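User: Hi! I'm working on a homework problem where we have to compare a predicted structure to a textbook description. Could you give me the structure for the chain below?
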Amino acid sequence: MIKSQQQQSGIALITVLVIAAVLIIYATFILNDRQIGDRRTFNIINASRAQQYMVGAEAFGKSLLEQYFEQSKAKRVVRTQPWATIPMQFPIENNLGNLEGSVKDMHSCFNLNSILSEGAPASTGTSGSTQTELQAPSSQAVSQGAGRQFGEQLAGEKIFVKIIEPLMPESEATPTALAAALRDWVDDDQEVSGADGAEDYTYTGYQIPYRTGDTLLAHTSELLVIKGFTPEIYDAIKDYLCVLPIKEGTINVNTVKPEQAELVWALLDDVDLTTVRQVLQDMPEEGYSESDFFTALGTGKVSKEAAGRLVFDSKYLLMTATANIKTGRAQTHSLLLKNNNQFHVVSRHIGE
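Assistant: Happy to help. Predicted structure tokens:
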């Protein structure tokens, strides 16, 4: 009898312990779920705050640019100016986080959409160089045909090839083949530009089929879906490339870094890369004028393909504004158009 009571007491104790364990596990689950919910809410709040501050950072950065060019009376956009050399960084009140900003000249890189350019009518000065203002796409915008022979390169292709040729890693793809594939991806027809070209019939034959863009690129990373472009090639050339929503592609001598002298050299004939690099290194504080640049160069002229591409001022700047709010982060890339000393947002890309 006593033994039976002890067994019943033991069973009851085990039952109580099991129930207690289940309750503890359940309570822990509820607390963890509550903590996860709280963190999710805090992250949403911080991300929302970051987005609002990001918008403010864009407006603030734009006003700083306008203020600088208004007060400095700078005649040209030059890479040694404060906007290009001093990164913007400001704390947010109550130690919530910080705002960061940087500005890049979009004429210190090759505009991939200018691959379609056939060149511009030259207005030749005494130095043999040319200058043009950025214009909306016009008759320079290329479609297949117009009396060109099969496989004939456009001016934009030739410049692209000359820029990337010294940068290319070992690869089965040649610069000429890459230029042809890029041209076919951007143009608005389905006719291949040559033996190395690629239109829908190529891409729809892949294991995961897709079609060509047949429109202007929006980001340089789109190269990775174009025939021949590998991650290794992209990493090697991406710092020399950019995308503008136009088909013209001027290069500002005064904002190209000496280590990227290929961008200027590719527009010139009868001059070696080392000379161009040294001239960019010796650039005066206020930048070169056209005559000063060719005097410093001592030799060379703008190539026929690059007529109208070599300039000494800029119209488009890309401002990157980032807001960090504790666990929240928001970033925007704003393309700004400079009109006199005023800047207008042309397009905006939100995200990394």
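For your comparison, note the following. Residues 58 and 82 are 17 Å apart (CA to CA). The two ends are 77 Å apart (CA to CA). Good luck with the assignment!
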